[in-house]
Every structure is written in structure tokens, then in C-alpha cells.
Amino acid sequence: MPLGPQFSLIHSEFNEFLFAPVGKEENGAVLTVLSALTRLGIDPWGEAARLSALPKETAARMLAAAIAVLPEGDWKVSDAPAIAARLVDRLPSHGMPGVLATEREKKRNEKSRPVRAKWVLRVVLTAALLLFLSQLYDHHSPEPAPNIVSSTQR
Questions:
Q1: Which of 58, 47, 66 is nearest to 100 (CA)?
Q2: Number of domains the chain is built from
Q3: pLDDT attached to residue 10
Q4: What span, in angstroms and rounded, lies between the C-alpha atoms of 33 and 39?
């Protein structure tokens, strides 16, 4: 069974970003974004997709935080923001930053409104039913049984 397009390395829209060098490690090997994210236990393609959906400044800040956790190579922790900004420029753009997130949030809220309204309606109807039943029970509760033992039998 062939793998889906999201797993294809040849045609991935994130290749330019994922295979970009972060810098050289102490042993002289080039550390790519793909290797760096993998070492941090982060799914590289998932993270690339997530970062590309964010405004560039936010994506750069998040990537800089990840780079700062890595052991230093030919870069210093203080270089992380500049490295991240350079790398984020290699991400594909998915619409206007900020606007995309706002639109996505609006759609999510619009979808959840009917669900919330249904739950509120169910709670209100259940409360009304319970109130009605409690009132009905109070009005039709049986009278205490008269004392069967009469005072003459004592």
C-alpha cells in the first residue's frame, strides 16, 4: 500500500524548511531543522505545518525557543532568534498571517454554537421537567394513614 502524500519526502511543501541548516554541530556535521526537531521529540512535518499556519513572528519565536534547547554548535543560544527568523522565511505561506488564525477561530466558534445551544436547551428542559415533577409529587402525595389503633383498643 503506497503512503499518502503527507508522507512523501519528494513532494513535501516543507522540504525547503525541513532540510535547511540550523548550523554546524561541534563534530562538524550540519544540523538540519528536520534533525533538530526529531531530536527534540517533535514531529517535523506536523511542526512545519503548524508553524506555517502561524504569523511569521509567532512561528519564529516558537522555533527560536526550540533551537535554544539544543546543544550549541557553531551558534550560541543568543543566535536562536536570528536563526529561527531565517528558517521561518523558508516555510510556505498559507494565507495572510493572523487573518488565517482569526478565520479558523471564527469557524470553530460558529460550529460549536449550535452544539452549546442544544446542551443549554437540554439542561433547561431537564430542570423544568424535574421542577414540574417535584411540584406534581408534592400536590399528590398521600396523606398520612390514620392511626389504625384506636384509643379504645389500647
A1: 58
A2: 2
A3: 57
A4: 10
pLDDT at 44: 92
389504625: which residue's cell? 148
Instruction: Say yes or no: 84 and 128 in one domain.
Output: no
Reduce the DSSP state of residue 44 to 3 states and report it.
helix
Residue 153 lies in a domain: no
Which pLDDT tens digit goes with each residue over 77-108?
A: 889 999 999 999 999 875 444 444 456 566 66
> With a cut of 70, which residues of the chain have pLDDT below it?
1-11, 94-113, 115, 137-154
Range of the domain at 70: 7-88
Please, what is the end-to-end C-alpha distance for the chain in angstroms? 92
As to burial, measured by CB atoms within 10 angstroms (0-12 exposed, 13-18 middle, 19+ buried), residue 138 is exposed
Question: 127 and 63 in one domain?
Answer: no
Q: Is residue 20 part of a domain?
A: yes
pLDDT at 34: 93
Rounded to whole angstroms, the Cα distance separating 146 from 96 reads: 81
Residues 49 and 110 placed together within one structural domain of the fold:
no
Question: Torsion-angle region of residue 141: left (phi > 0), alpha (psi -120 to 50) or beta?
Answer: beta
H-type helices in 70-98, by residue range? 80-88
Q: Which amino acid is at 58?
A: T
